[in-house]
Design a protein that fits this description.
- The protein is of the alpha+beta class.
- It has two helices and twelve strands; from the N terminus they run αβββαβββββββββ.
- Strands 1, 2, 3, 4, 9, 10, 11 and 12 form an eight-stranded antiparallel sheet that branches.
């Protein structure tokens, strides 16, 4: 009997020893998982409210932004303080694209994941340049072929070489709370000029602005401040 008792005690002691060895390892994995969850949460909050990354899929903003660029966008922007020449990223639903998506929800989820990861762009988010702010009258074109704002021709060094300021003649008065937006690659850009006959006359609501592009992050040979 004493021998049997000692044997059971040995097994029990051994079992406890194994558990004591495993507990720190389990706590280590829990710490790693918790740290990852916190990192994902913080990243999500930052991308929702402070900064985000957008993939550029079109050539409408050349040479400022090229197709395939990943652009860092600051979301802490006061749309009432935007000035002519500023770059903006905005939600084009209700102006550039229809309000309601016809894609099934699984496709919309995949599209959202692609946009969040920076692997794909968005069919409803655009990057353009502010040409007219509330109170402006924007027209094409002046005596020397340049755009006019409030009757004065403006210099646009950012327009792609070889492009005219606009192939389309127009006059637009920008009311309060609206913006007149155009791309830098004027000959291919779908922008406010393309919507002259649509409701709203090509003017985009200022509260649709998501943020201001700050820098190109990728590719590395183009990385730099915008």
């Amino acid at each position: 009997m004493p021998t049997g008792t000692r044997a059971r005690d040995t097994r029990t002691t051994g079992s406890h020893a194994v558990r004591r060895e495993r507990q720190p390892r389990a706590r280590g994995w829990r710490s790693v998982v918790l740290a990852l969850l916190v990192a994902v949460l913080v990243t999500g909050l930052l991308r929702a409210f402070v900064v985000d990354v957008y993939w550029i899929g079109s050539d409408s903003m050349q040479p400022t932004v090229e197709p395939g660029d990943r652009v860092l966008v600051g979301k802490l922007v006061d749309e009432t303080g935007l000035e002519r020449g500023d770059l903006v990223v905005f939600d084009g639903r209700g102006s550039f694209v229809p309000l309601r998506s016809e894609d099934p929800w699984p496709a919309q989820v995949l599209q959202s994941l692609g946009r969040w990861s920076g692997l794909t762009g968005s069919d409803s988010v655009y990057l353009k340049r502010v040409i007219g702010i509330p109170g402006d009258t924007v027209a094409c074109c002046g005596p020397s072929g340049r755009l006019e704002v409030d009757g004065e021709e403006i210099t646009e060094d950012y327009v792609l070489d070889g492009d005219r300021p606009s192939e389309v003649e127009f006059t637009a008065v920008v009311p309060e709370g609206r913006l007149w937006l155009m791309g830098d690659h004027r000959s291919v850009s779908v922008d406010s000029r393309s919507l002259l006959g649509a409701p709203g006359g090509g003017l985009v609501r200022a509260d649709k602005v998501i943020g201001e592009p700050l820098a190109v992050l990728w590719p590395r040979d183009r990385a730099g401040q915008l």
